[in-house]
Every structure is written in structure tokens, then in C-alpha cells.
Amino acid sequence: MSATARPQTLAGGGAIAREGMFLAEQLWPIKGQLVLALIGLAIGGIMGLMQALDRIGIVMYKAMLMQTYYQGLTIHGVLLAFLFTFSFSNAFVSLLAIRGFERPLASTFLVQGAFWTMLVGTLLAAYAILTNQATVLFTFYAPLRASSLFYLGAALLVISTLLTALNLVLTRRAWQQEHPGERTPLLGFVGVVTYVMWALATVGVVVLVVFFLLPWSLGWLKTTDPQFNRILFWYTGHPIVYFWLMPAYISWYLLVPRQVGGRVFSDSLVRLAFILLLVFSVPTGLHHQYVDPGIPTVMKVVHLFTTFSVVFPSLMTAFTVMAALEDGGRARGGRGLLGWIWKLPWGDPSVTAQLLAMLVFILGGATGIVNASYNLNNVVHNTSFVPGHFHMTVGTAVALSFIGISYWLIPYLTGRELMGRRLALAQAWLWFVGVLLFARGQIAAGLLGEPRRSSIGEAPYRDLIHAGLDNWLTAIGGTLMVISGLLYFIVVLWTVFGGRRLTQPLEIPIAEMRFGARETSPLLDRLGFWFLIAVVLVAIAYIPLILLYLPLQSVSPPIKVY
Amino acid sequence: MRIEAYERFFMILAALLLVLGIVGIAIGALVAGVHVPSPAGRVDPRTLTTTPPFDQPGLRDLGGGKYEAVVIARAWQFQPNQIEVPVGSTVTFTLATPDVIHGFVLTGTNANVMVIPGQIAQVTARFDRPGEYLWVCHEYCGFGHHQMFGKVVVR
């Protein structure tokens, strides 16, 4: 790399955290959301064992106190895809915003409100699911009927993220008033962009729940339109993927480089990547509906192009993050084309977990492009190829990164040293090996036509698919992931309850820039402008679709089939 | 804005990769003729079993080696759940549901479609080799979901 080194700290940020920016009344709801996230990970994750073993004919949902396989599957999806990711992001991004803007969040009421809505939403949804009134999986497609409490609970989980979004926007505004004319600090900026994108993305599911499913489940609406409801669901259902990913990207871009002793390539490239994610994440939902019968083909093609556009910032991420890692590896004495890789701090569980998460994400991204590839999707749609794919993205790129982050975050928040470091290292490698076996099995079985979200162990056609070996790989890989999860919770509980007190408080690891904010175009700091462009793109991608789709085909009463 | 040579090189490479992907998809659609399902009409699920052609589900010989299979997907069976055609046949599957969302994937072919209440789903497959082709429901439709499957027997 020929670029001359000119270290700069993040614009507006000093090397040491400023006194007084962390308020106790804002920290407890952040810690509380982290606890909720880990409870979600624990309970949702353990259900994975039932699903993995189901693939080789070991049917054990009754042993896990479930009435059906699908009740356990609903818990797995709702707790991991919604509760774990939402509450971890709320906690992590809020904390980084405080550090990035070097001031408390604008509203204590909102950060506490985000905690309470997350808690109440979780309790309502959990009650509905555990009493078998909402075995509708995390997609809750109409006309499957769920208890109103389930929809209400799910809505509260989303509202919790929206309260966080509002708080972040207000915090950025307050910072701008205190620092007129300055460029927003990058660490704060990326969090705000993540949540602004998500706020735009939630419009679909909010309309779906408030105007269709909730009144329909209460009997105020007699019928609904399942195809239109799916359009609304996937309007949110794809950008949610970026809402899961972007907090991990924040860590990969701005924190991991520090942990490996490298610098971030440039402030402007990071900003550009996040702005492209803001602009292109939302108008892409139809690539989940390529094989839906009720959607005009021309609109599917439009979404094909927007979906491919949103791949671009992820490829940029691959470059920038890799460059920062190489910078770190070389600074630590690595030589040659690849010699820097071995010099990275592989003994640090926080780093190792995230490096392995990145490696798996290469495969996760590549299989995602297969899903997005229009006619190629015919081969894989709704087969087990899809869970094979997303356990490498949200199930590893995100989940294992969050785990890696927690290896410094929990000591940071509790003031206790991370215990069982070798156990934590084993945990990361076990997850890595587990997910690769699991995904290899699911993907190969999917190509043979094995459906996703089916109790294969009970299916009469199990032997007609000839995916015996693949299903064994799925079962072994999934089991290794669950064991890895158990190791993780041993480390967490040991640290929280038995960790030695740290003599010095930890600092959040924040990387330096090769090229700082001064070289960044002011246009890249204009969030309102880019938000407007995102709204215009959403309008182009969805208004013709809705006009072509109307009138609504409101023909389905609620049906309970579980 | 400052963009380094390495950055620029990688961004151009990334853009090229994506363009190549789109070209591949276009060749698949325009040259090889692999398409995604397109709208085939609407139907009221509450009166499905009295609405033609779903009042008489089954296989129809359209002549010239072409067939139409009218299939009802309901919780938790396909009706009919087995059809027989000679080698070299082209079969268009016309599907609808009277209850919840179902799916249809025909192993060993590109036929894959969602079956959504209110919509008629249509996919076509050509059978050039004899054998049994399994189809399964690939969308969760209740606790008997995994029992939903059918077969094309090609002789």
C-alpha cells in the first residue's frame, strides 16, 4: 500500500473518552437491552438443536416442551431474528453514539422507553408463542392466524428500535447545534445512518400490522389480501437484513482495525458505503418474491437491479475492512503477500470471532447473490439453500460478530475481566466449523429440492430427496453451533459473576484514519439529502407496483392450522 | 473527495462483477428462456372448488405433447398428488389454494412457485427423461406442512 501514513483520530473524538458523557440513567437501559439480547440468543439458539437433529430423523420437540416442531421454529426465528438483533443493536449503537458524539443521548426518556417497549413486546410475543397461539414463524404470513398479542408484541419490538432511531437523530442534531459547521463524527454518523435506513424500512411492516393484521386478528376486519400483505412484509423483510448487518459493519469498519493495530483506509469511503446502504437497502424487497404469482414481472426486474446495487457497498466493505486488517498485520511485522494474516491477534477472542465471521460472510454474500439472481432463484427459492445462506449472514456474520463484540463490551460495561479466554477462542472456532458444515449440508440438500422450514424428520418424502449425507452435515454442524453457544454463555456468566475486577476502566476500541474527515466531501455528511433520495427510490420501486396490483384481493379470513 | 488508486481499482472491479452478473441473468432469461412465474389471474379461495378449472382438478391433454395439470394445494395435501405423462411432455401446472399460503417446488426442474390465496399460480416444466419427479410444499402451512407432496411419473 503506497498511501502515506497520516494518523488522525475520528473527527470530533479524542483518544480518551470525555468525562460525564455516560449517564447512569442512560447506561442501565443500554445494559438492560444487552441482557434481553443475550436471553434471546440463549433461548432462540437452544431451539436450533431440535431443528438440526430433526434433519436426521431425531424428532425431539416434545422433549423441548413444544407442541409441534413449528412452535420451536417460531421461537428460534422470533427470538434470534428480532429480539437478539434488535436489542443488541439498540444497546451497541446507542453506546457508540454517546462515545462518537462525546455527549449523552439527547433523550433519557427515549432510551429508557426503548428498553421498556422491548421488554413488554418480548413478554407479549413470548406469551402468545409459548401458549401455542402464534405458531406462525417469524414471517407471520396471512392468512395464518396468530393471537393479537403476538402482533402487538412484534409491533412493540419495532417501536423500540424506532424510539432508538429518533433518539439518535436528535442526538446528532444536538451535536450539530453545539458544533456548527463541523463534519459529524464518523462513529456517530454510521449509527445514525443505520437507524435512519431502518426507520424508512419499517413503513411496510408497520402498515401491515396496524392496518391489516391487528384489526383482522381482532375481528374488526373480516378478510385480508395475503399477496399484498407479503409485499408489505418484504418491503421491510429485506432491508431488515441490512439493519442486522450494519451494526456488525460498524464494528468491522471502525473498531476491529483498532483491535488489530491497523487504521481505517478513509473516512470518505466508510461514509460513502453507509450512504449507499441507506439509499439502496429498502427498494429491494421483491427479490424475495420472484416466484410470487401476483406480482408483475417488470417490477421483479426493477428490484433485481436495485438489489444488485446494494451489493456494491458490501463489496466496498470487503475492500476497506481487508485493507485495515492488512495495515494492522503489517504494523505487527507481517511480511509478504499474505504473511500479515498470521500476525493478526488470533489469540484475542473478540478479534478471532469477528475475523471468522467476516470469512464466513464471503460465502454468505456469494450465496445471497444466487438468491437475488432472478431466474437462478427458481432453483433455490424456499429450499433449505436459503437457511444455508442466512446462517452464514445473520447467523454468523452478524451473530458471531455480536458475540465477538460482547467479548470487550461485557468487560467494558461490568468492569470485570473477560474470563475463560481459551474457552472463548474455542467457542469462535467451533461456531466457524459448525456453520460451514451446517451450511454445506443445507445448501446441497436445497439444490436437491429439500424444502426449508419443514420438519424433515417427520416428512414422508424424506428418503425421496436423497440428501442423507447432507442432512447429517446439517445436523452435526448445527449441533456444534449449539455447543459453541453453550461455551459462550459459560464465558459470559463466568465473566459477569466471577470475573476479576479490572484495575483500569476499559476504553471502547476506536480506530484511527489514514485519511480523516477533512478530506471528505461535505455532501457525504448531508443525511437529509440522502434520505430524500432513498425515499424517491422507494417511491419508484413500490408506487408502480402498488398501482399495478390494485384493487386489493381481500379474500382471506384468519385460519388457524396449528 | 479523496479516493485512493487501490480504492478506485477495487470499486471498478466490484461494479464490473455486478454487471457480469446481470448479463448472466439476461442470457439465462433471453437465450435459455428461464423465466420467473408471472401473474396468471386471480381467484376467490372461498369459492375455489366451484370455480373452473379448479372445480375439476387433474391432468388435461392439450395435444401435441402438452398437458395442463390443475392442482389444488390445501392443508395438507395436493389434489391430485400424482400425475403420469409420457417422456418428452411439457406440463403446465396451474395451482391455487382455498386456505393458507402453500408452495410448489418440483425437484430436478426449474419449476418453483408460491401458491397464495387469491392468486392463480402457473409454472411449466418439460420432462425429457423417464422417472419420478417429486414435488413438495415449500411454505409453512400448519402442523401437517411436511406431509404435503406429490409426484410426476414420467414413462
UniProtKB/TrEMBL annotation, chain B:
The keyword Metal-binding applies. Its main location: other. This is Cytochrome C oxidase subunit II. It comes from the Bacteria. Residues 62-155 form the Cytochrome oxidase subunit II copper A binding domain. One of its GO terms (cellular component) is membrane. PROSITE patterns: COX2 (PS00078), COX2_CUA (PS50857). The keyword Metal-binding applies. GO terms for molecular function: copper ion binding; cytochrome-c oxidase activity. It is found in: Cell envelope. Keywords: Copper, Metal-binding. InterPro entries: Ba3_CcO_II_C, CcO_II-like_C, Copper_CuA, Cupredoxin, NosZ/Cyto_c_oxidase_sub2. The lineage of its organism: Bacteria, Pseudomonadati, Thermomicrobiota, Thermomicrobia, Thermomicrobiales. CDD domains: ba3_CcO_II_C (cd13913).
